[in-house]
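Re: beginner question about structure tokens

> Can someone show what the tokenized structure looks like for a real chain? I only ever see the sequence side.

Sure, here's an example I had lying around. Input first:
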Amino acid sequence: MASTFGLGRSDSGGNTGLAKPAGMPKGKGRCFYCQKDGHWKRDCHKRKADEAKEASEPTTRDHRGLAFTVTDRTLEVTDHGHWIVDSGASQHLCSSHKAFTKGTYQQIITRGIEIADRSKIEAVGMGEVVIGQLRLSNVLFVPQLGGNLLSVARIIDSGYKVAFASERCTISQQGICLKGDHEGNLYYIQNWQHSETAHIGLATNKSLPETLETWHRRLGHRTLDEATVGYLLPRVSDFTIKRKEGNIVRGDRQICTTCATGRQHKEGSTGTGEKTAQILQVVHSDICGPMQVSTITGEKYFITLFDEKSGRIAVTLLQRKDLVLEAFQAYQARAENQAGRRIKALRTDGGGGYASQHFQRYLKSSGIVHRVSPPYTPSQNGLAERANRTLMEGARCMIEDSKLNKEFWGYAGPTAAHIHNRLPSRSHEDRSPLQHWTATVPSIGHLRVFGSVTYTLVPAQKSEQA
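And the corresponding structure tokens:
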């Protein structure tokens, strides 16, 4: 009987064409689930009861859709740089707090997870992790996990392709390729940022398309929306925005708390004046300081020199105010050599080092007209004041975002100027300051978020000496 009727009816209910035993109700066969005669699997009461019970019990998924297929015994590794590429995981899971990108980690309401061997673990935080040039968002921090899991589903959702072969797996997208090794029954990728051994192959160091949030941070927290993106795209190069189904991918944060903290200011007066016709026809300058905290090299002041025609900003850090003349002379030599013309006029507020006899004599001997704004009217020197504000707001946002000490404002300020000089402005003929000087569209593909981890290649000669 078993050999005659063991196949019964297919799961889809189709007829197998086998004969039925005498006395069997018409249209009925053997259930593949309980192995009893007289009904099909789709009608099996035991199957329905078991499925209802299973649905009511905890499984490898919690109520938030977390799941993975690897047991905790598999993940007992001492190297937290190992990441298991798991096709069954619905979320990226990480057990090492130091793996999270600085400033992105935040605590969350505890999420319970039951893994394959029925033991329970908890996710207590969430943040961003970078593996080579693969940026993982919404990674859950699970201290009890003992290892790290890469969700194949999440990687594919981010626009990458994942391929498995007998010896390795690859994660690729538009010119970049991360390679993982096949060890035992699992595929591993090694995070070279947190391990001495690198198992990741990078096919290129070309900047990948990034979200609007990432570019907002790269550009020193400048305002970015779809209109601004459309304005910038034809005016700078290597400005690659990540898109999904034709729409710009904004990122996880809708409101930038860094900007809310770092860009508070008092509105100043505005006005119009005669426009300059040439580069270096009028240069505006202002001294800012003393700052509350000195830089790591001891500077407390900085001087800005702002070309009115192009909007280009030059920044020089100063330990003392009486070094203003030396800073201006260095700027003059560099700017006049690049532009092929001389500075005609300098506008300042007349304070600090600008009022010294040495400075006045130098301007007179150089044929530079010194235009001094009236006392207690900073708006008359508004371009230099706004340049300082632009730099300081950008520097504050970058320091806040990177979580670096305030002493690093000496790097953040010049970085803000570097970014400003490469972005176009409607007030300067829809061109960037550098384009006015070089007649070429500047690239911004080299920009990275301020405070990012970097690695320096040591020349072979020096490494051998060490």
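Each token stands for a local structural state, so reading them left to right follows the chain. The first helix runs from residue 2 to 5.
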